[in-house]
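Batch manifest, entry 17 of 40.
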Amino acid sequence: MVTASKHGDKPKAVVLFSGGLDSTTCLAIAGNEGFQTHALTFRYGQRHQAEIAAARKIGGSAAASHDLFDINLAQFGGSALTGDTEVPKDRSEADMASGIPVTYVPARNTVFLAIALARAETLGASDIFIAVNALDYSGYPDCRPEYIKAFQSLANLATKAGIEAMGVPGKGMTIHAPLQDMRKSDIIRKGISLGVDYSLTMSCYDPAPGSGDGDFVHCGHCDACLLRKKGFAGSGIVDPTVYTG
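Output type: structure tokens
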């Protein structure tokens, strides 16, 4: 579903876009780097739709096009974000740094990037942006630099565009992860410098009932909320987020 369209001679890039703090910053970075951005949001069977509402509110005006793609990862289970497992709350930084949490969705970034790759080929785009982070995150294996590097290699082996560009310097598919080595506080500062309105974003794993119908109310206690709070506190920027606690 294309919700907006702009035209120009800029190179095209597909941006994985959830409507959260990180992906909204990533979208702004891609635009600032001179790309015509094509946002791609997934309704993948997640328990709440607040992030979809946020993505719709932001993506239509911030990108050249915004596509909402439907898949159903919930049919496989295995995650608190797609099933009935309780979302962990008030975990310590040590707990977040240890092991893989139940909010990990099996192979989610691999599925998302594969679809983004197909979208890029149909657009004639050679660039894909993803807002993974390897510093302030909850231990997801598909956020690591080695994973992004491996997927880029796969992208160039598995696509017509990649094969045709083989051996041509500067050509082929590129997976950009501009937030990879940034602290949450640095991500927020970067976004503010690019004009991001973080009050429109939704990061929470367990938002208040009805959130997304006009207001985005975060629980304040899940890993995503704790990292968001920490990021604003460390950035010295006033947190515009509404929390239940």
